[in-house]
Structure formats: structure tokens, C-alpha cells
Amino acid sequence: MKTEKDAPLKIAMLGHKTVPAMDSSRGGIEVVVEELAPRLVEMGCEVTCYNRTGCDNGGLSEYKGVRLKPVFTLHRKGLAAMSSSLWATVKATFGGYDVIHFHAEGPCFWMWIPAIFCKKRCVVATIHGDTGISSTSKNSYFCGNEAHMGFRNMELVTV
Question: What global pTM score does this model have?
Fold first, then answer.
């Protein structure tokens, strides 16, 4: 996939624990990211996954062509996901990415940051599991310019 200028599409992914997961931290979100990111690389995209510190990924800085970057994580009950997602969001917002892809509901709390600072970039959220959001199709809800809270260029997909 190429952008208008024939440069590779740059994608940041965040909200997962670590890719690849080498320990018991591997959950459904990690499986999705671990499968999706290399496939996007095969299609010509540049993909960066922001991993939590403290989760074992074998000390890798790259996995199947996907760049792996650690982000600061507060290892306290209830704070790990939110703290790592905040720092990943800040890095991705100012990292020059074309697409910032959030995984899971909790990390999506920070979507307002790139929505404000990255007007020409796309922000995507994938919610893994049943969210109870009603939609025109069975499993997905798409937001465009009419998105609540004034977000633009955002897409929310539930799987």
C-alpha cells in the first residue's frame, strides 16, 4: 500500500501488550496484532508496534518486518494498559504516521490526542469482543465526520 506520494503507508499499532508475546501475556489482541502487522508489511506498509515494557518479546526490535518499540509502562494494577497506551499515543501522534491503529477499548480513551493533533492522519480503533454498540451491520460501527465528540478521520471496528 502506498500513499499519494508513492511512499509506504506508515502505520502505528498500540493497545496490545507485546508482539510477539513469548510468555503468558499472549491474549486475543496480541494474536490479532501479531497476525495483522506482518501482513501489512507484506503489502508494502511500514508498521511499528508499541510494546509495553516488562512483557517478554525475546528482546526483539523487529519481528517479521514490523518495528517494535517499547513504551514506558507503570506496572501497577489497573495502570499498565492506560500508561503504556498514553505514551504510545504520544509517540505515535508525533511520529509521522499516516495511520494510528488502537486495539481494545481502554487504550481508545487516548484517541482524542491524535484526533486533535493529526488532522490529516487516520485514527482507527479495533475493539475486540462484544461492545454492545448498535450498528447498521452485525459487528461493525464506522464513524466519519459525524463521529461523536467531534472526531474526524476515525474508524471504529468491532470484531
Answer: 0.78
